[in-house]
Amino acid sequence: MFLLGLIVHIVFLFSIFDIYFKSPIVSHVKPYQPIHEAPADRLVLFVVDGLRAESFLNYTTMPYLRSVANTNGLWGISRTRVPTESRPGHVAILAGFYEDPSAVAKGWKQNPVDFDSVLNQSVYSWCWGTYDILEIFAKDDLSGHIYTEKMDPYDETYSPNRNTTTLDKWVFDRVNYFFNRQELDSEIYKKLQHDKILFFLHLLGTDSSGHMHKPKSQNFLTTIKFVDENIQEIEQIIRKFYKDDGRTAFLMTSDHGMTDWGSHGTGDDHETETPYVLWGAGVTQIESESIQLDNNYEMSLDNRHDINQADLTPLMSTLLSIPVPVNSIGQLPSELLNMTLPNKAKAIYSNCIQMISQYNKKRMDIESSAISFLYHPYEPLSSEKVEEILHVMEMLLAEEKYNSLISLCEDIMHLSLNGLSYYHNYYQKPLLITISLSFMGWIMFLLKVLLKQRINTQAEYSIASKGLLRPNGGVDIVIRTISILMAILPFYLIYAQNLPMQYYIYFVMPIVMWMYAVTPVKLWMVTLKSIRNKKTLLILWFEIVCYTLGSLAMGFAFSQRWVLSIPLLGMSLWPFLSSKQNSRSTYIAWVAGCIMLSVFSFLPVVGKDVCIELVILAGLIWIIAVSFYVWNTLMPYYDKNNEIKREAIMSIIQITILAISLVIIFLQSKRFIDEMPISRVFQILCWNFSVMFPLLPLFYTKKCINRLLGINTSILNFYLLLSVSHEGLFMVTLIFILNCWMIIEYKLIDVGKAKIDDLTFESDDTDNERNISYIERGINKQDFRRAFFFTLFIILAYFGTGNIASLNSFEVRWVLCFTTSFQPFVITTLILLKTLAPFLSVACTFRAIQIFTKAPVGCLNIIVLIFSNIMGIQMLFQVRNTGSWLEIGTSISQFVIVQTITLFIVLISQIAKIFTGTDLYGTLLKLLMTKKKYA
What we know:
35 helices; single chain; 8 strands; mainly alpha; Alkaline Phosphatase, subunit A; 59% helix; 5% strand
């Protein structure tokens, strides 16, 4: 069953890549060689990483570029698209298209599909900057015309005393040396005299300074001032090298902006609005007797022209008169160029031919395999209309009707973009329908498995009745026959259209799912009959509706966190509706815990604001709670029981380590604020603590309460070392309510005089067998409730304080206690462990509940799987392939969570089993005794 579920959910998981994450890059498009005269022989591109428009406009720390923009150059806002990250930003600038959704398969680190760029089309290009950016464009340079000098990425650091200008100084020094060395290589010198060449300078200092010191800090302003001064110097060096021949164009822009709190990736205006300044050869000169300045920015309004970021690609291509990269969707902002009308019309014509060629190739790829009677073409640009349009454009060009040609080309480019989108999503709707049907069939199949389990464990069913579990009878044969015949049709359609192999699985799977779900028909008929006889059909439907709505609410809470408070408040009423009563204090604690936990759903996502005081408060609350428990529960029996003495000592050790951790958190944060070097000694100490955390709980006895105390203390300690705000209080509240849940569940079962203090984590323990009567039982309504609570706590553990694994909410101070170096693997691992920490608390508590309720673990997992698949249908239609990496990544993570939740539960349950069932103290003691024996 586990293997079947794994296969089914792998299919569901990979289906979203065929539905949403196909690459929009059209392969094998032929570039069009432009016929207009080149306004410039060479172009110098400065990309100031992380420079937002506000920082350029509102401050006077870039006086040279502002002066150029107001006099002999042009400037404006370059509107980027989300995700506002370095790789897609540079791709948009140099290749003319926005994020490739299929890059998710590469972890957003690189484009998995090869694409064309301005660097490819240039005769020669020289690039300086960080290796991860330069590698995007130079890794497949087979002709050897792209030359790069790459910076060591480990020069990046988040230490507050780090001078971020050194990152840009590295680039400027090497460019300076390249042009100023006394004896240039003769071959290189000859190449430098060629036309159609490009110089690309990637300047990372502003991005690092913004992350570390924030964009309004003095350090950031100093960094961009340094950039401004050196851009002026580099311009002078290049002009001098080329004897000021007036054939060099210069462009300064940025790949993305940045928020006030030093992050980027989403659609905030500060992130999507970047500046550009264009000057030099081929640039329109504004002739005005008096400069009209913007009152807000003191920038010339006459010189301002706002554009889209992808438009920079055809702009640079036109300046050098090289082919527009074939994958570009940018449109030439011709008003920026000082060109004659014929040359301007020819340049726009080149841009249009490049775009319509891209559309035409995409259209023919679909048409070549589509079945004629099923094919629906994009009517505005059918094959006949494309031929007609090309003929008309050629005629207008030949007749020198340039204004008409420009107008027609602009209209055709818009149609081409719409057509590209149409054919890119051509098979999306059929795939969504068939995967949705598979989801529903899988849910019905799981319900059938639960019905079979209940029949097999109930004594009142006779052996004859159990025979209905096997498919038989004419109805079942008819259903199977019809299903087989229905499966032939999608096989033919997929084969005829030459679609990918996985499409066979997608379109056949719903037929197979529903066939096995509805057979044997007798099982469903007997079940419905038994429900009708017991007059519980109305109650059953009410429960089905409640659980379905609850699952949908959990799914909706993935995007609207406040919705999590609704099931939490509903859960607070649960003990009052139960048949057995608990103590008043237990009720008050449960209700208070549910209300407090629901409050966190309304608080801001962790990451944007830092409040270390809340982290310290969470640690102090836990220290007080554990100290109170030790003093009142363990210390009275300290001298009477060796096991209690051991647990008291271990608890005191963990409290001491937690107190030291709080001191480290405070001191490291203070050093960061005061811009002092972060203590390496404290970081080493934190790494040592992290090694100890998983080991310390294993020295406790296997008594549930005490072992959970040790586990939760270790988890919380590690969690706090990676916290920056109220998430520490969330973790304390979550642990509190989990313990309340365990106590209430224990009191609701018939345990006689047994106390929860005596319960251990050994499922086969003889004491447990005496205290809790064990009967092999089937699934019941209470198990559905427990599984629902467990699922809700898992969702809460991940989204209670926001998706802490998201890029935009990342705060460098999360990992301050462990590292200040830019080491993506280490940082990602630490954040992942922080994300998993609450899950382990939930899993360990649920394991205790499983033990004393004797709930069938396999069936509980199936129920959780049903809830997750209801959410899965909802999430399938909410996956996004546009927007920020935060939005795309969050939608993917939501779908992945609901698809892998059962597998994840099995894995986390095994980890919880190790944490709750391993006795490291006893193992070490046995080893010592054995050693003494043989000694």
